[in-house]
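quick one, 174 residues, struct below
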Amino acid sequence: MSGPETPITIRPEAAGDEATIFTLTETAFAPMPFSEGDEQHVIDRLRHDGDLTLSLVAEDAERIVGHIAISPVSITDDAHDWYGLGPVAVWPELHHRGIGGALIRRAIADMRVRGAKGIVLLGSNEYYPRFGFEHHPQLQYPGPPPEFFQALLLEGALPSGVVSFAPGFTPAGQ
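---
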């Protein structure tokens, strides 16, 4: 795989990046028909709760152009060291330039180094398989069509059970 068309640097989120990440995520998900419009708040809640395991930004020469979040998940079979990928956001005018893919590849590599056993996500079953994600019937996430819930095994055996994302994915009071 080649790198992004737009030259970027990927680094961990730093203090002071929060407002840009919020606006970037809000803008990136606004036109998406599957979005509930809450993704920017999810990241803030994950950060507030201490569940933002990995938060990376992509920068070009001038500004932050993309962001990816990784947070812990729980699985009913008590599997440990599994994480959820997302949200992933890139400024809409920079879509299809490889920035999101570069963020995903870097996040997977960083999580592998941290000893993660696997990563799950809810997303396009046409886009994410290029990174190794696939639907596994033994891992379930109730609600959306099952084929959109995908996993990437990094180490060990694939667990079996119902997956729950970190509490930050659910707005307070729900």
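Residues 26 and 104 are 19 Å apart (CA to CA).
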